[in-house]
Amino acid sequence: MLAVASSGTLLGIHAHAVQVEVNTGEVGEAKTFLVGLPDTAVKESVNRVWSALHNSGFRAPATKTTINLAPGDLRKEGPLFDLPMALAVLAATGQLQPESLKPYLIAGELSLSGGTRPVAGGLALALLARQQGKAGVLLPSATAEEAALVDKVPVHAVSSLDEAVRFLNGERFLPRLDPASSPFRRPPELKHAIDFSEVKGQHALRRAVEVAVAGGHNLLMVGSPGSGKSMIAKRIPTIMPEPTLDEYLELLAIQSAAGVSLAPENRCFQRPFRAPHHTISDVGLLGGGTIPGPGEISLAHNGVLFMDELPEFKRSTLEVLRQPLEDGEVSISRSAGKITLPCAFMLVAAMNPCPCGYLGDSKRECRCTVPQIQRYRARISGPLLDRIDLHVEAPSLPLTEMQNSTPGETSAILRERIVQARAKQAKRFTDSKTKQTPCNARMSHSEIRKHCAIDQAQAELLSQAMEQLSLSARAYDRILKVARTIADLAGTENIEAPHLLEAIQYRSLDRALFY
């Protein structure tokens, strides 16, 4: 007897339809054959499914059985086919009505006892079910929580194989999960959280961070060890505007596809903050694998990618950032296929001015030789530096500044100004054709000409800066973008000379440090 269950497999962050076909009662030796390009995890599903069937009180086929995962030319990976495979086996052996499987898209891993375990890609599977017009989705409880964020498709959480069978047979009612009550929708807990008011001094750096976050610009902080670079970077998420629902669904789909298990306290409506170690590989940062999956830059989509000790990263690893920083997406080609992953992140990088870290420090003497300093700085190429909008010095703090008990502006105050500036940008780019977050850093060349117009005096001022600092054409555009953001923070409609001057001084390290 033949039975079919609908499921899906992940390719990148998107789910592709898979039909789990089970045929029992075939002539031949009582063995089970699994076909359809399964990987090792999928091949092991047969053993898990057979044990789960026995321990749940059902019987496994006693005849030759063929299980096909269609289409046959699409490679399948992961344990998410356990549940649909078990249900299709039950339907093929007459223990479940085959028609009851048709309305649902089903996925989930099974334990040997018959309980369900969460799988990656719940959100993508729910989107696939909505696209196919399915009546609902059956998923393990933890996976169903994220899938419930997708509207117009009922999501049911099943805790075991037995519960799924009784639901499909009409013997048990499983309520549809309410999207509004999903733990992923709650705002982040700000109680006892880190705050910008804890940062002592560093007023110029704080201002640069505010400008960078307001426009979604990339930021490089250069300073001695202990000057507060990492401390400030870790507080950037506290001043970022709350993501829209579409942005949050997109980043949650990436995390789900990557198999990132979010702890309950982290399942909240916030932007990601990723801080990979400098030993990370190119694939770990960019994404990839036999079946391509998201890397750190995609996991930081709509959020922050913090790269501490930037020159310590491998040169090849840094160079793969160039195209994603420019386009906001990355294309990965493997034998299993080609995928394009979103990665519109804000890069925040930190580095020392020299290998020992104390070049220009007023307290400690630098012991590095000139060739050592040149080799250290040469690890960051000019094209990569060009793609970083703001370069800011983080000087070491004097003792009097550190002992100052007067708190600085809180994250809430900074965030309020940033939200207002982002609101102006969202209104400005309402008709923009870009699919990415509407912010000044993502402006196209035509949008720069339209929204970053400057008068003759400002043009001459910018030309002088370009000549003196030997800046590239890309740096020219980025100065205008930053000036537009500064004007938005100031609440002015047009870019004025002070805004342009401030934007230019954020590029002054180009020559001082790297040329």
Structure, described:
This protein has 515 residues and is α/β, with parallel strands linked by helices. Helix content is 37%, strand content 17%. It contains 22 helices and 18 strands. The strands form six sheets. A five-stranded parallel β-sheet has the order 11-14-17-10-18. Strands 1-2-4-3 form a four-stranded mixed β-sheet. A hairpin with a 4-residue loop joins strand 12 and strand 13.
Quick overview:
It contains 22 helices and 18 strands. It is α/β, with parallel strands linked by helices and 515 residues long.
The best one-word shape is elongated
Note the beta-strand portion: 15-25%
- Can you give the helix content as a percent range? 25-40%
Rg, please? 27 Å
Please specify the SSE layout and strand pairing.
Layout: E1 2-11, E2 14-26, E3 32-35, H1 40-43, H2 45-55, E4 64-70, H3 82-92, E5 104-106, E6 109-110, E7 116-117, H4 122-132, E8 136-140, H5 141-147, E9 155-158, H6 161-168, H7 203-215, E10 219-223, H8 229-234, H9 245-257, E11 273-274, H10 282-286, E12 287-288, E13 293-294, H11 296-299, E14 304-307, H12 315-319, H13 322-327, E15 329-334, E16 337-342, E17 346-351, H14 370-377, H15 382-386, E18 390-394, H16 399-402, H17 411-428, H18 445-451, H19 456-469, H20 473-490, H21 497-505, H22 509-514
Parallel strand pairs: 3-4, 5-8, 8-9, 10-17, 10-18, 11-14, 14-17
Antiparallel strand pairs: 1-2, 2-4, 6-7, 12-13, 15-16
Helix pairs in contact: 2-3, 4-5, 7-17, 7-20, 19-21, 20-21
